[in-house]
Structures are given as structure tokens and as C-alpha cells.
Design a protein that fits this description.
The complex is a heterodimer of chains A (283) and B (259). With 283 residues, chain A is mainly α. Chain A has 12 helices and no strands. Chain B has a domain of 75 residues. Classes of the chains: A mainly alpha (283), B alpha/beta (259). The structure holds adenosine-5'-triphosphate and magnesium ion.
Chain lengths: 283, 259
């Protein structure tokens, strides 16, 4: 162990203690994820056996093998459709999240504005915004990807804005007093204290938003959209009883959703390595 | 020369007019002269931290006036006339130890190279060399508190306001830190207001010890510490030191009994 040499200061033990509290991930990556991988394989196998043994009709539940066949057969087309919808999701995500953060930054400055806005934001956040999809389809045109981006943007805007406001305002009173003792400007207090304090909140919201954006894009396509959109494809294939195709598209959508989430997670690891949720410790 | 800190008939009521109204401080009068080291000692909840916040203009008094360097306290805060160590270390967890110490310098736009060298110097002073790039959560409570002291000293303020800075330290480290603080005070002619629960620490460091009592918080006694200005390990073994420790202990006992 480090720091076992003795010196006059007597701080060597303390230094050793510091090394001890740094979280060390002893398990390898494989050991860590092994249980999840096993559960996944088990679920797929059970699903396949279940469908075969009970001769489940395809329109109820296709077997994983059938879905896989459809996926590999239509891969090129599915990827093209998937990319189209992913672009809608990403566009909406970018617009909604940046607006959410900007509005939060603008209003957190004025307590009165925040207090007046927050009840509306929280109410809006619990409204099923997807219900507005047909209306936005009308505004921008069903074929226009902008109509889907708008829906996604509105959906992700509220959780991002609410969480950012929370992060900017729920600051430790002592930390604020410290800034006050330095007679720090509002600007310095915002960027050296409130914003860093808000980052973990913002990343939590971005993770939620990443998942929501793919859901939002697909579901709003169910209400009509461009022929080259994944949601439109799913509804068409389902209407024509090609359920394995519909399922293949759904699986693709899931993979995209999870990927978006993982991207945000990775960015978070680099952006706030100091936060307990990233260090792998509970507060 | 005006007193460095002048507290004139100051009272502080928290939540006035509400059911949870607290009279935290009642009619406090205290002048602290330049170069003095004044310790404040008293039972928990008697308003020591409140008094320090009033001097630092982090809260306003309900009545009375606080002057720092002859100026109203708000002006002194704007002029950065003091450095403060809070009861909780209050380090920013997204900053490394060195960056935490540099924070007040950053706010004054001190160039990076100078910031870093001054932070290193201060961290050496509190025996934390080599921990520059650690994060606060990698340090023990006592080490965090020493980072906070380094942060308060890095601006070289003439007036130091310290709220139980050594509360989380073991006895031996505390004595070493006392010696460091004493040396800084002795060599740089600073004025200090120092809150503590340790009688030994108060007597060792101070030129005066202010004893407070609770409900309402008020000053019950002020004891002059007439030890020689220079203090070292031998000071703790002199008869006068023991007499003064006993004197403060008596005063504290009376304060706690509400006499
Ligand atoms: N912000 C506040 N709002 C309401 N009451 C407060 C506030 N701050 C302090 N008080 C009350 O004022 C009194 C004095 O508190 P203070 O923190 O100054 O005590 P203290 O002497 O520093 O105690 P300790 O030795 O435990 O730190 C306490 O009764 C406390 O409950
Ligand atoms: Mg206190």
C-alpha cells in the first residue's frame, strides 16, 4: 500500500487512507455484465421455445428467429428508414434540449419568473404531448420531418427545462454564502457555482430526453408521415399482417433509443467525472 | 486607528414575527483592534456563527451596526477586506483541491501562473502538498477543512474570520495547525476572529477570549490573555497558561449555567 513509510509530518497514514477511498472497480467488464447477458439469452431462448411449443400465431407474437430473418432480409431498407427517423429524433432532441437549457438559464436569473413559470412547466410536463402530433402534422405538413422534430422538441423541452431550473436553484446555502463572501458577481456565481451544480441534473434530464426523443419520433409517425419513416413502415406492415417485419422495425427503434441513451451516458462520464453517480458511489 | 471590527449594540432575530422566531443575539457590543486575535467561545447554539456572519455581512443585523475597518460591513465585503473559513468546509466538488484554493483568485482575475503558485504555497502551509489534484471527496474531513483555510489565506486578507476551522482535527494535528496559524498571525500582523469549542486552543491563540451564553446569545465575559505575544510549545506548559485555561473554563461554566 502507498504511503506506509513514516515521516515526521505523520500525514502518511492519511495519504494511504485517501488511496483506499478511491473507488476501484475490481471486476472486469465481462464479469460485471455477465448476469445481464445471461438473462438476455435466457429471455430470447424462452421466447423462441414458447412460440414454438404453443404454436403461437405470428400476428400475436413472432418468434425471435422470424424477426431476425426479417431483419437480415430487409436490413438495407430498415437502416434507411431508421436513419430517417433517427434524424427526426436527433433534431428534436437538439432543439428541445437547447431551448430547455436556455430558457432555464434565462429564467433562473429571476426568481419571480421561475416561480411564475414552474407550475406551468410541471403541468405541461404531465400533459400527453403526443396527443398534439396530428395538429403539428397539420401545421408543418405530414411529410415534413419538421413536424416530428417539433413534437420531439416539445416533449423533451419540459423535463430538460424543469431539471435545469432545479439544478440552478437547489444550491447549497453555504456554497452561495462563500460566493457572497467574495462579493462575486451574478455572472461568476452563475457560471462558477450554479451551472456546475446543475450539470448532474441536466444530464439526468438528457438521459430521459434521449429515450423520449425516439419514442416521440416513432409514435408521431404513427399518425402519418413520410414513406421513408420507420413509424410509417411499422403501421403499414402491421396493417398488412407482416408482423415479423413490424417487429424487426420495432427492435431497430429500440436499438437506436438505447444507443442514444448510451451516448449521453458516455458524455456524462467525461463531463462530470466528479459526481457521485459517475464515480459509482451513492451520496 | 479605528477598530478593525466594531459591533455596536447588535441584535439578530431570525424569522421575526413568525412562530419560529429566534432571538439569536442580544445587544452585542465588541470592538476588535488591529492586530488582535479574538476567540469566541460558548455553548452550541449561542450565536457564534451568526455573529461571524454579521461581521462578514452575509446576513444583516436586526438592529445595531457593524463596522469593519471603519466602514459599514457591506462596503467591507465589497472591498474584500476579510477572508472567511466556514464551519463546513464548503469546497466545490467539481474543482480539484488546488482549483478550490484558486477560486477567490480567479474571481479577482489573477493570472493562472500566479494563481497556481500561490495555491501551492498555501497548500504547503496547511501540510497538503501533493494533494493539489485530488478532489474534495478524496480527502478526510480535517483535510477538507485545511483546504478551506488555505483558500481563506490565499487572498492574504488583513482580517481573518474563522468558524471552528480545526473542529474536525485530531489533537496533535490541531496543535500543529494552531502553531502554524499563530505564526501566520504573528508574522503578518493580521487581525483574527476565531470561533472554537476548545478552551486550550482559544487561550493558546488569542489576545482576548470572548465568552458567550445562550438564549438569548450574549457576551457574558471578555478575558484578556496576557501571555507573551510569541507562543510556542513551551507556552502550553507555563503556569499562566494553565491559570488562563481555568479562568476561561470557569467563565464558560457560568455562561452555560446561565449566570
Ligand atoms: N438561518 C437561520 N434561520 C433561523 N434560525 C437560525 C438561522 N441561523 C441560526 N439560527 C438560530 O440561531 C441560533 C444561533 O445559531 P448559530 O449557528 O449562530 O450557533 P453557534 O453558536 O454557531 O452554534 P454551534 O457551536 O453549534 O455552531 C440557533 O438557535 C439557531 O437555531
Ligand atoms: Mg456555529
Amino acid at each position: 500500500m502507498a504511503g506506509q513509510t513514516t515521516d515526521q509530518t505523520g500525514f502518511s497514514d492519511v495519504a494511504a487512507g485517501v488511496d483506499a477511498v478511491i473507488p476501484a472497480r475490481k471486476q472486469s467488464w465481462f464479469q460485471y455484465y455477465l448476469p445481464s447477458i445471461l438473462i438476455f439469452i435466457f429471455a430470447i431462448v424462452t421466447w423462441e421455445l414458447f412460440v414454438r411449443l404453443f404454436s403461437i400465431q405470428e400476428f400475436l407474437l413472432p418468434a425471435p428467429s422470424a424477426i431476425y430473418n426479417s431483419l437480415s432480409l430487409n436490413l438495407n431498407q430498415l437502416l434507411k428508414l431508421g436513419w430517417f427517423t433517427t434524424k427526426e429524433a436527433l433534431g428534436g432532441f437538439a432543439i428541445g434540449c437547447s431551448l430547455g437549457i436556455l430558457v432555464a438559464l434565462a429564467t433562473a436569473r429571476w426568481t419571480i419568473a421561475t416561480e411564475a413559470l414552474m407550475p406551468f412547466a410541471i403541468a405541461a410536463n404531465s400533459v400527453p404531448i403526443l396527443a398534439f402530433a396530428p395538429i403539428l402534422n397539420n401545421w408543418f405538413g405530414v411529410d415534413n420531418p419538421l413536424s416530428k422534430m417539433a413534437i420531439v422538441a416539445v416533449i423533451v423541452f419540459f423535463p430538460v427545462m424543469i431539471n435545469t431550473v432545479r439544478g440552478l436553484t437547489l444550491v447549497d446555502a453555504n456554497a452561495l454564502e462563500l460566493m457572497a463572501s467574495y462579493a462575486a458577481s451574478e455572472f461568476d456565481t452563475l457560471f462558477r457555482l450554479r451551472v456546475p451544480n446543475a450539470l448532474p441534473y441536466i444530464f439526468n434530464a438528457l438521459k430521459v430526453a434521449a429515450a423520449l426523443s425516439m419514442i416521440g419520433a416513432i409514435v408521431s409517425e404513427y399518425f402519418g408521415g413520410n414513406r421513408s419513416a420507420l413509424g410509417v413502415y411499422i403501421t403499414q406492415e402491421a396493417a398488412q399482417f407482416r408482423f415479423a417485419n413490424a417487429w424487426a422495425a420495432i427492435i431497430l427503434a429500440c436499438i437506436v433509443g438505447i444507443t442514444l441513451y448510451l451516448i449521453v451516458l458516455t458524455v456524462e462520464r467525461f463531463a462530470i467525472p466528479w459526481h457521485p453517480s459517475v464515480r459509482g458511489e451513492e451520496r | 486607528m479605528p477598530p478593525t471590527v466594531s459591533i455596536q449594540n447588535v441584535s439578530k432575530v431570525f424569522n421575526p414575527g413568525e412562530t419560529n422566531q429566534v432571538l439569536a443575539l442580544k445587544e452585542i457590543n465588541l470592538d476588535i483592534l488591529p492586530g488582535e486575535f479574538v476567540s469566541i467561545i460558548g455553548p452550541s447554539g449561542c450565536g457564534k456563527s451568526t455573529l461571524l456572519r454579521l461581521i462578514g455581512d452575509l446576513i444583516p443585523p436586526s438592529s445595531g451596526a457593524v463596522l469593519v475597518n471603519g466602514k459599514p460591513a457591506p462596503q467591507a465585503r465589497l472591498d474584500q477586506d476579510y477572508g472567511m473559513v466556514f464551519q463546513a468546509a464548503t469546497l466545490y466538488e467539481w474543482r480539484t483541491v488546488s482549483k478550490n484554493v484558486q477560486l477567490p483568485l480567479e474571481l479577482q482575475s489573477v493570472p493562472k501562473a500566479e494563481r497556481e503558485s500561490r495555491a501551492r504555497e498555501m497548500l504547503a502551509l496547511v501540510e497538503l502538498s501533493g494533494f493539489e489534484n485530488h478532489h474534495p471527496w478524496q480527502l478526510s474531513g480535517g483535510m477538507q477543512q485545511r483546504v478551506a483555510i488555505a483558500r481563506a489565506l490565499v487572498m492574504r486578507p488583513q482580517l481573518l474570520l474563522m468558524d471552528e476551522p480545526f473542529g474536525a482535527l485530531d489533537e496533535m494535528t490541531r496543535e500543529r495547525m494552531n502553531q502554524e496559524l499563530h505564526t501566520i498571525w504573528e508574522q503578518t500582523n493580521k487581525t483574527a476572529v476565531f470561533i472554537t469549542h476548545s478552551i486550550a486552543e482559544a487561550v493558546f491563540l488569542s489576545t482576548r477570549v470572548v465568552v458567550m451564553s445562550v438564549r438569548p446569545g450574549r457576551i457574558t465575559q471578555v478575558i484578556d490573555i496576557d501571555l507573551p505575544r510569541h507562543r510556542d510549545v513551551d507556552t502550553r506548559e507555563t503556569t499562566r497558561y494553565f491559570e488562563l485555561v481555568n479562568l476561561v473554563r470557569e467563565a464558560l461554566r457560568r455562561a452555560e449555567a446561565g449566570l
